[in-house]
Write a structure and sequence with these properties.
Layout lengths: L2 H11 L5 H10 L17 H15 L5 E6 L7 E6 L9 E7 L21 E3 L2 E3 L8 H15 L7 E6 L7 H14 L2 E7 L2 E2 L6 E6 L1 E10 L5 E2 H4 L6 H9 L21 H14 L20 H10 L2 E8 L10 E2 L2 E10 L5 H13 L7 E10 L2 E2 L5 H15 L4 E5 L5 H8 L4 E5 L2 E2 L10 E3 H17 L3
Parallel strand pairs: 3-6, 3-7, 7-18, 8-19, 9-17
Antiparallel strand pairs: 1-2, 2-6, 4-5, 5-20, 9-16, 9-18, 10-14, 10-15, 11-13, 12-14
Helix pairs in contact: 1-13, 2-4, 4-13, 5-12, 8-9, 11-13
């Protein structure tokens, strides 16, 4: 394969007017949210609009040997299933690719920069902005870019099976029910590519070697039967926010952020600590630039290697939502009856998420202070994932493709986010090589305001995937 020609082709596909970028713009304009964030998910038709948009776009690319199936059952998250026949003249193990079409909430429009918006795809410089640009709507367009190049240049490629689900941001329960049923049709798989991870910089290919798990739930504290004037009630009864704060302190040290649940910790392999330190040494401050503290605010540590260990291999708690607290302009001088907190506990790979969730619930609900009514509603748990080393052929193909495009080998890291599906894929195809990678840079702000995708890097990333698919078909 002519690497220079391939890079140019992919760059054009991911430039203004290019077939891939224009395709991505179309799906950004569809405001389809993940089912956990859209109570009318099955009724408003948006998920089906996104599903059929993607299917129609793939069909329009005239890929040889391409069969497109949409699974649409009542009250079941739909799935896009694409099969592309091998063009190799000998038997080559199939490649399964994974991505998702659902999106996170748009957030307050005022939080987006001027001229930008969740459903308004705008290209500025090297980036395209909009919800779903990097998480994860670009995946299908990128895979098809690679296949188009290979077919148009008569370069053999393996059989490709593309899975695009529509509920990933709300948990992977639905696709985990689809996969066992689809396994006979998918057949044996040599490589699985999960294209839903980040790139630590834009200078090479990054492959994720581990993912954290997650345990989520809603803590609710009730004390008063009815609200009461704060001047009359303070000193007589506790505020429910204070009780909630006391309970959360049972599982997290508020001074250090250390998680107190032993079930949420693992013995971190030294090899993974060394990996984090190596990345920190190479990237320095850039290794943690995914976060942007305000002027004067500090990170949890001054050692970048330790910060990467924290992010990938230690548990961490976030309060991601609340109920019972009015906005400031509507807050009156009363003690409220109830405080609810949505808790997200990230777990290191190797920790059992269900066990950690049970320990979390036990600590939060035992011996309620002041006899308050305390409940904890589980929102689910998913295990993290430890990736195995690649076999020689896969490693060589990745290295060769990365060298051709970026001039250096792939680099490996541990991811702080979660893709529980990886464990299911590994159990269903235990011999497959699982490559978790992606084009979302640390400055791409997934789930947040001004979510973006660096299209210059995405073009190069597409060229690497193209080269890899061509190489493993030899």
């Amino acid at each position: 394969m002519n690497a220079e020609e391939c890079v140019k082709y992919c760059a054009q596909a991911w430039s203004e007017g290019g077939f891939a970028l224009e395709g991505l713009k179309g799906i950004i304009r569809i405001p389809n949210l993940s089912p956990g964030y859209d109570e009318h998910y099955f009724e408003n038709g948006l998920v089906y609009k996104a599903l059929h948009y993607m299917a129609d776009w793939i069909k329009a690319q005239n890929i040889k040997g391409c069969k497109i199936t949409t699974f649409e059952e009542p009250k079941v998250e739909p799935l896009l299933f694409v099969e592309i026949d091998s063009t190799a003249d000998h038997e080559v193990p199939a490649v399964l690719t994974y991505g998702h079409l659902d999106k996170m909430p748009h957030l307050d429009p005022a939080g987006w920069s001027e001229g930008l918006g969740a459903t308004n795809p705008v290209v500025r410089g090297n980036k395209i902005y909009g919800r779903g640009t990097n998480d994860d709507c670009y995946e299908g367009f990128l895979v098809i870019t690679a296949i188009k190049y290979l077919q148009e240049h008569n370069i053999p490629h393996p059989r490709i099976v593309m899975l695009m689900e529509t509920g990933e941001e709300s948990g992977d329960d639905e696709i985990m029910r689809y996969l066992p049923k689809l396994k006979p049709q998918i057949g044996e798989v040599g490589v699985i590519m999960v294209l839903d991870a980040e790139a630590e910089d834009y200078k090479t290919l990054w492959c994720c070697k581990s993912l954290r798990g997650v345990a989520m739930g809603v803590l609710e504290v009730q004390h008063l039967a009815t609200p009461c004037h704060s001047g009359m009630a303070t000193g007589l009864v506790p505020d429910t926010f204070r009780i909630a704060r006391m309970l959360v302190s049972r599982i997290e040290d508020e001074q250090t952020g250390e998680i107190k649940l032993k079930e949420a910790h693992i013995d971190i392999p030294q090899s993974r600590i060394d990996m984090c330190n190596a990345i920190a040494k190479q990237l320095g401050a850039a290794s943690v630039e995914i976060v942007a503290p305000i002027k004067g605010a500090q990170l949890l540590d001054t050692d970048y290697g330790q910060l990467l260990v924290n992010k990938a291999f230690k548990p961490g708690l976030a309060v991601t939502g609340q109920s019972g607290l009015p906005i400031i302009s509507e807050g009156s001088n009363v003690i409220r009856t109830t405080t609810g907190l949505k808790l997200s506990l990230r777990l290191p790979p190797g920790a059992d998420a269900e066990t950690a969730l049970a320990a979390m619930e036990k600590e939060l609900t035992r011996d309620p202070p002041y006899g308050a009514k305390v409940t904890f509603k589980s929102l689910g748990a998913g295990n993290g994932w430890f990736g195995e080393d690649f076999d020689a052929k896969t490693a060589a193909a990745l290295e060769g493709a990365s060298q051709e495009v970026f001039g250096q080998k792939p680099l490996y890291y541990g991811e702080g986010g979660s893709i529980p599906l990886c464990n299911t894929l590994q159990s269903l195809w235990p011999k497959a090589q699982i490559i978790v990678t992606g084009a979302a840079g640390t400055d791409s702000n997934p789930h947040g305001f001004d979510e973006s995708l660096n299209i210059e890097y995405t073009g190069k990333f597409a060229a690497v995937i193209t080269g890899f698919l061509g190489e493993i078909s030899k």
